[in-house]
Amino acid sequence: MSNPLTHVATRSVGVIVGAPARATELGMERVLQGRYKIEEPLGVGGSSQVYLARDQALNRDVALKVLDPAAAADGNLRRMFVKEARALAQLSHPNIVAVYDVGEVDDSPFIVMEYLAGGSMKQRIEQIGALKAADAVRIAIEVANGLGFAHSKGIIHADLKPANILFDANDVAKICDFGIARAPQEDADTPQLYATAMYVAPERVEGKSASVQSDVYGLGLVLYEGLVGKPPFTSTNAAVLLRDHVVRQPVPPSHLRPSLPRELDSVALKALAKQPNLRYQKASDFATALQRIEQIGALKAADAVRIAIEVANGLGFAHSKGIIHADLKPANILFDANDVAKICDFGIARAPQEDADTPQLYATAMYVAPERVEGKSASVQSDVYGLGLVLYEGLVGKPPFTSTNAAVLLRDHVVRQPVPPSHLRPSLPRELDSVALKALAKQPNLRYQKASDFATALQRIENVDKELATTRMVMADPLEDFVPKTEQSPVVALLSSYGQPLRGAFFSMCTALPVFAMALLTGFELIGALLAAGLVAVVAFAGQLGIAIAIAWVMVTAFVFIFVPGLALLLAILGIFLWARSAPAEQIAVAMATPVLTPLGLAPAMILTMATCFGLTGILAVAASAALTMIVAVAMGVQSLGAFAQTGLSLRQESLFNPVRAAEVKSALLTMLQNPSDRFGPLGTQLDPSVLWSQMAGLVSRLATATLETWIATVLAWTIAALTVWTVTRLLRTFFDTLLRRPKRWFALYVMAAGAGVVAGAGILYMLSVSLSMLDNAP
Q: 447 lies in which domain range?
């Protein structure tokens, strides 16, 4: 490749290097062509001056762009200036600056254009820094639309940059400065580089012609600067800038602004690909990719869930008074100074008995329940459907059905299934899909039957978004409006990026550990045990923790069956009970892992983790895991299962997890599969009722003969330690809330409260364990 810098045209009035020449100065109040009255200068370009003028004929403000004398004397620049007028004249589009007239003053040509009072994108970025992500994306889409229209007319802009994007009074973005715009066939003969070095496509630096893809690259630069507040390459040396465009990869926007969705990285970086054929091939493709970005326009997931819960609480109260809202929608949800959501507009609210006589449909078509479309009465469930629509729109930025035709909308509510929110916004947890879609069920009896049930389901969802996931790692309840942004805290930035995978890995490990331990205990080879545990871990890490726990529970039950069939039966019944009660999957995972980790001295870590992460329900999980650990320890016949798990057995006894019995049961199972003539003989021997009764009687006998106070005290010690964590954390948080007397809480204080609770719980657990150990060893 030849040196790309040799293709750069450096002109005395050029726009790559060199200072702008002296501009044409027009006196204020001067009237051009008897029509355009000069009012004030607006700005200076590389070779022109722009004035605000008044069109006295049509009584409107216009922008008047005049070529300076030195540029007017240059045939090439004069030709380019005239070409800009011609290019703009044929580009009538809402996102391209309109041209009204052309003329000449003092031997310098001028163009009369649409005046845009909103300033340029460059000015906006210089004033406020990076734009809101939604604004940057909206502007890029509008510019892409204008650019696509220009391309359809055979016009390439060739110098797209934030300074060339202006805004009208309604904040609509419009492309200006088509001074070096050209048709591709023109540029093929004279591919000189007049573009600004900070915003030039790599192939232009290498001397190639401008193309649709080079404009796409420029639009990628515009989007990038809007998102992070600066271009990807910012050297003050033009030669270095040009080299960077050719060889250096831009930093992904989300690395500079972690709150940005990762999907924006892929869109921006594709537009900024070094090779034109790797970019979007049309500006419309770029716009389409941006329109598919999930998070822009939607609320933060935590905010959407919080609002839905607050509205559900208000709705539940109204229902308790016999009032149905019947027209719930985002426009009817207002916020007070503390950002608390409140329901308004009960104008068509009615008691069910009223509506039974006159079930007319007064509700808004975009937010109406299916049964209301069919002429049925308003009900609690129709309000739940409305609340589901509110949650859905908050999560994805639009309702599930959006036709402009009211009849089509009503039909959609009755027959069409909504797209799951996470399909439109992949960062959402799948649990939100099930909650939202249950609220939006077509049949009222399939929805939540009360608004409070809807609120409860939402409150159970963890990790609603990255910031909420960060707080979930140190406390149980969702905390709004106080979490520091990722830009403000490196810890939050770290947890925002890696907290979810770490959390997933932790619970995957907890789910897989019991499978691995029981497989080894049963006599399986190491490879087989690893494969079984690996299957469970992969399913859990893939986001299906509930399914992984079900698989692990079945495997562990099967392994226990080989040793103690009666205990396996109880385990199976417990699993069915937990499934029927919809017990939280993460708490089950930690409780299952506790008996395996207790001999390693990790019982305190598990206890404190459950109490800290799961709050009050974590205390129940600790009690359950303590009871399970004691049953396992007594079944193994040991006097203790680590320093924090004393069974109270006076002597070590034979383990019920006998490898000899395991080998015999496995042999019987193989015989059942391989020997058709005597399938159940050996297995029947192993499942002899007297043997099973003897096993269960022996287990109960051990529990009864053990020092009762010891193993029960162990369960109580674990539970008290967990309760201490929760109590201290709750008291300190309440104290801080009262002390600050403000709706916005301080993240650091809440973390300190959780830390103090952990320290207190650890101290209590240590003291109780030492006391129990001394009592157990006393003569």
A: 301-461
